[in-house]
Structures are given as structure tokens and as C-alpha cells.
């Protein structure tokens, strides 16, 4: 069977990490492994993760000495996971806003379709249980429209924290550090476009409409971080212009 590794970035998640859900899922799905990255947490996250992963063959902990942000935590986890040569590798938000059962739906798509990445699509619609605060929904739509225009790609939801890649693609797009702490998803899309071009990227990237997504309280993104978003986008664009490329 295809082997999949999921990186779970964790920063001060001791009080809200759904450890039992991860434990039960890992017992049931032996071909799916988790790498929990403790991103220099100042609470008891390390102890919680050690207890969770100590007796499991498909869960492990990687601890970063200092808080480096989600982008670097994910990158370090992917680099670590790639050493085991999985078929697929990706990342998943620790709060399980996207339920774990969706992982198998992502894997099925990668197995059956000629695609290199599956990304969650948080589309509010009839028949789906996708819930987020109204203000964040509208701000997200404005951001998504801007990003889609800049990318020149019809992406609806670049920022969903559930993504899985083929090993061959992940090996190429996670090697270099990201230039932003929170908008690294946009950088990932730009790196893929730089490798494959816009036409091929539109065929190889797949947005999967999630049947369930629940916004969880305690987000590490503050109002100040939101105010920085335009400057983060400019940073990405300036880097692209400096390099004379799409990365």
C-alpha cells in the first residue's frame, strides 16, 4: 500500500491538541504516519507529544530549539519525513479543523488521478459542514481573489492547512526556507508554478472540497498578523522580482 507521512506543526498546543483522535486514527491506519513538530513551545506541548508518540510505530516528535513559525516548522518536518521515502507527504493543522478521515480521501485522489498535490478547499455549500466566522470568511475571499490573480492560477483556497504532495514534488519545493512565516502556502504554489508552468500546474494541482471544516478557537494568528498580510505578499513579489523567476 502507498505510504503517507503527515507533518503536524505544534506551537503551544498542550491544552487543545486532540491527542486521542490522533492516537485512535494512527492505530487504525498503519500506512499513515505523523511527525509532530514542536515549534519551540513554551507550554507543556513537548510532554504531551512525548506521551502521545512514545509507544507508537507511526507517530514521532521533532522538536525545534526555538519558535520559528509555522512555515519553518512544516518545512523541517517535511525534510525529516522525506528521509523515510514515503509515497506521499504533506501537512495537517494540529487542531483538526479538517478531520483526520479526510486524509484517506486525499490519498484516494492521488492514487486515482494524475495529480501531484491535493489541497483542502473550504467551500461553504449545501450538504457540507464548513463553518467559519463571517468576518474571516469575507476577508478570506478578498485575500483568495488577490492571491489567485497574482498567481495567474484559478486557486480558490490557497491557505487551507491540509495539503498532501507526491514525494517527487515535495522533494523540490520544501528544500529552501520560506520568506514569510504565515503565507508560505502562497510560496508553495509559486514554487510549483516555477517548476511546471501555469498550464501544467493547473492540471497537476487539485483542490478537494472538504465535507467538514470547523474553525477552532485559539488560533496563533493575531489581528496584528492579519495587518501584516499585504506586506507579506509584497515580500513574496519583491523576492520574485529580485530572482527574475516565479519563486
Largest sheet: 7 strands, mixed
CATH topology group: Spore Coat Polysaccharide Biosynthesis Protein SpsA, Chain A
**How much is the average pLDDT?**
89
- In angstroms, what is the radius of gyration? 17 Å
How many beta-strand elements?
9
Count of domain modules: 1
What structural category characterises the helix and strand content?
A: alpha/beta
Strand-and-helix sequence, N→C?
Answer: EHEHEHEHEEHEHHEEH
Residue runs with pLDDT of under 50 for 5 or more positions: none
Summarize the structure in short.
With 247 residues, the chain is an alpha/beta fold. It has a single domain, classed as Spore Coat Polysaccharide Biosynthesis Protein SpsA, Chain A.
Present the secondary structure layout.
Blueprint: E1 4-10, H1 19-28, E2 32-39, H2 45-53, E3 59-64, H3 70-82, E4 88-92, H4 102-112, E5 117-121, E6 129-131, H5 134-151, E7 162-166, H6 167-173, H7 184-204, E8 205-209, E9 212-214, H8 223-243
Parallel strand pairs: 1-2, 1-4, 2-3, 5-8, 6-9
Antiparallel strand pairs: 4-7, 5-7
Helix pairs in contact: 1-2
Describe this structure in words.
- With 247 residues, this protein is of the alpha/beta class.
- The protein contains 8 helices and 9 strands.
- Helices cover 45% and strands 19% of the residues.
- Strand 1, helix 1 and strand 2 form a beta-alpha-beta unit.
- It starts with a strand and ends with a helix.
- Strands 3-2-1-4-7-5-8 form a 7-stranded mixed beta sheet, sandwiched between helices. Strands 6-9 form a two-stranded parallel sheet.
- The chain has one domain: Spore Coat Polysaccharide Biosynthesis Protein SpsA, Chain A (Alpha-Beta Complex).
- Helix 1 runs parallel beside helix 2.
Amino acid at each position: 500500500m502507498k505510504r503517507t507521512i503527515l507533518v503536524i506543526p505544534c506551537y503551544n498546543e498542550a491544552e487543545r491538541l486532540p491527542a486521542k483522535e490522533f492516537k485512535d486514527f494512527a492505530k487504525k491506519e498503519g500506512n499513515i504516519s505523523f511527525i509532530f513538530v514542536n515549534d519551540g513551545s513554551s507550554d507543556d506541548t513537548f510532554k504531551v507529544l512525548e506521551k502521545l508518540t512514545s509507544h507508537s510505530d507511526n507517530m514521532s516528535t521533532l522538536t525545534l530549539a526555538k519558535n520559528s513559525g509555522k512555515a519553518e516548522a512544516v518545512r523541517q518536518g517535511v525534510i525529516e519525513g522525506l528521509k523515510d521515502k514515503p509515497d506521499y507527504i504533506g501537512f495537517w493543522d494540529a487542531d483538526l479543523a479538517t478531520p483526520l478521515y479526510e486524509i484517506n480521501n486525499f490519498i484516494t485522489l492521488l492514487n486515482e488521478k494524475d495529480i501531484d498535490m491535493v489541497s483542502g478547499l473550504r467551500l461553504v455549500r449545501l450538504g457540507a459542514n464548513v463553518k467559519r466566522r463571517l468576518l474571516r470568511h469575507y476577508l478570506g475571499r478578498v485575500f483568495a481573489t488577490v492571491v489567485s490573480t497574482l498567481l495567474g492560477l484559478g486557486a480558490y483556497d490557497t491557505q487551507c492547512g491540509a495539503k498532501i504532495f507526491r514525494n517527487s514534488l515535495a522533494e523540490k519545493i520544501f528544500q529552501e526556507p520560506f520568506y514569510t512565516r504565515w503565507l508560505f502556502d502562497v510560496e508553495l504554489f509559486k514554487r510549483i508554478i516555477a517548476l511546471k508552468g501555469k498550464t501544467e500546474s493547473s492540471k497537476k494541482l487539485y483542490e478537494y472540497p472538504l465535507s467538514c471544516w470547523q474553525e477552532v478557537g485559539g488560533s496563533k494568528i493575531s489581528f496584528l498578523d492579519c495587518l501584516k498580510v499585504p506586506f507579506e505578499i509584497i515580500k513574496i513579489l519583491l523576492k520574485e522580482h529580485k530572482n527574475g523567476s516565479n519563486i
